[in-house]
Amino acid sequence: MMDASILAMEMAEEALASLSVARSGPDKYSPHTAGRQYRDAVTCTIYSAMVVESCLRRLVAYRLWMQSRNPERKVLRATWPKHANIPLVLTFVKAAAVVDPLLIKDIEELMYKRRNRMVHGGGVEMTESEEDHPEHGLVRSRGLASVLLTEDDIEKAEWCVGVAKRVQAAVGEASRDPEWKAFAP
Known about the structure:
Helices cover 65% and strands 11% of the residues. The protein is mainly alpha-helical. The protein has one domain (4-122, 149-175). Strand 1 (124-133) and strand 2 form a beta hairpin.
């Protein structure tokens, strides 16, 4: 077995290295290179989010099952959802660990704004317009457009990988917090 977050971090870092090469090459504006840059940016974002989610869930599990006292552990095991959503996981992490508020803000941006837009397709934008046509008079138009990847996604790829690394470090530090002793009575 392999920890998926380790593989995800490797993939995000490889994509970031590939993105750096593509952005520094002489053909950085060619259509082939542009497609590669977007692919690498999406890989950085999605796999960085995977690392963050895995680390946060690991901290929650560690707190719930290994670092809580027996009476509380029984209640927590009985009430904690098997597949808790990210807002609930973040609420627990904020209550059970000392985490830099700026890191929490960055986690929320990575998970909600960036990852969700990519994973869930960004939604569909509905447009409606009216135009006074010289021959036909008032013409009404309606359209649908998917939200597209932008240059900002490429620019933020390194930031996404950085957030994942900061979360790894913060969770490691929180796991060793002396206030939370493993197998507490």
